[in-house]
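Teaching soon. Invent one.


***
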Amino acid sequence: MDALALILLLLEAGLALLLLYFDGLLKKPAHVLVCAGLVALAFAVRALFFGYETLDYQDFLSRWVQHFRDNGGFAALSGSVGNYNVPYLYFLALFSYLGTDDLYLIKLLSTLFDVLLAFGAMRLAGLFTRSRVRLLFVYFAVLFWPTVVLNSAVWGQCDSIYVSLALLALYWGMSGKPALGMAAMACSFAFKLQAVFIMPVFVLLLIAKRVKLWHFLIFPAVYMLLMLPAILAGRPVLDTITLYFDQMGSVGSALNYNSPSIFAFARDVSDEALAAKLGTAAAFTLMFAVFAWFWWRRSSITNWALLGGALILVVGIPFLLPHMHDRYFYAADILSLAFAVAAPAYFFLPLLCEFASLLGYHAYLKMRYLLLMHWGAAALAFVLIVALVFTAAQLHPVRRQKYS
């Protein structure tokens, strides 16, 4: 690792510690020392894997950076580069100007958002507990969570970007800052299409009167603002704002791609097109059923109910949809972890989500199955059932449980 990459890594580690300090969680020198040690360890673990190259990096990310390097950096935004949305491509264009190995820069970018991801999870859990121990636990649990480390430091993927922004969107939406929440949700969606698994939570916030209809106008405004640099660089407006429609056509036609979705149970499906339509219909049915359920119980909606509803959606939608990939339950991994810190009796939920996701990660990174993916699908089915039961109790004033 060269000097610039090392400096950036140290700055990110410093940011991770500063966020805890400014959040008032480092009251004593002993707290600072312990947390500094944990931050150092979390970043040292990541640094160990920064030189590892996956096929995704070799076949796609490195070639995209090289395309920017060969075609004028930001000027190359005028054309079509890769299949990621343009906000992520801004970073790749920036990297093309720097002399540091772009593999390190890509992983440093994701690591930076690992920090924001931990902060977002901590803030969200903080709506339900003010225990310093529990808040510090969720912060460091995220930083050390296997799929988080594997996603950014090993795989070089950017799922921490859209999920960190989505967690902050949920936090702001639930804490009385709907405009900020909607703006963050738009940023999340601008980075990754998979934000659609979390976006429906804002309909629940609307039903709960935490969000007003006019706040939804913020979403397209922020999204267009993020597209503007590419448009100004000469990229066609329509191509820029409709990129996700093209992306949806490139996810593949197989029912499942190493994902612990319901289609992991499928064997020798005779009509895959029909099965895909049924899965899509089931996902939309679940989503609208949750909307109707919350509308029916709208006078009983609490933050606990919203947290349960969010977990149902973020697990249930990708669980039922066809064509899901190995990393599509990343948001469920982190939201379930924040959920368990808020309600420790449900500590097993993030363990089950992580088990399911790690099966997919293992399949890609090791090119072989540790266990067949239907074991992960069974684990997620159980998580979904528990989330439904929990939310039902929260929406029913008589059965509502109290957590501290």
Q: What stands out?
A: The chain has a mean pLDDT of 95. The longest strand covers residues 256-257. The longest helix spans residues 272-296.
